[in-house]
Amino acid sequence: MEISPNDGKFSQDDVAELRNELLSSGLDNWQAAELIASFLAARGYGVSTEGARHVACHLDSTHLSLENMQRELEIIALPM
To answer: Which of 63, 69, 4, 2 has the alpha carbon at shortest distance from 36?
Structure first.
């Protein structure tokens, strides 16, 4: 199931910006997880450390597509 721009918690533009920053910044997985957690917190969501590291590791190892990254963020985002 593909997430359309208006279906999810996060806009595709926001996710694309985060993804590009993660891919181009040279952050290690711990730093990338912190950036992901900050992204979610700025939008009113929490995340477990394990969940943020999971996305960071997948992004690093498989170069998650934009759609898959958005899906991963939707799964790990915890309402605050």
So the answer is: 69
pTM for this model (two decimals): 0.84
Q: At what angle do helices 66-76 and 29-42 cross, to 10 degrees?
A: 70
Please give the helix or strand (H or E) that residue 78 lies within, else none: strand 78-79
DSSP track, 10-58: S-HHHHHHHHHHHHHS---HHHHHHHHHHHHHHTTEE--HHHHHHHHHH
Residue 57: how many other CB atoms lie within 10 Å: 13
How high is the pLDDT of residue 1? 40
More confident residue, 2 or 36: 36
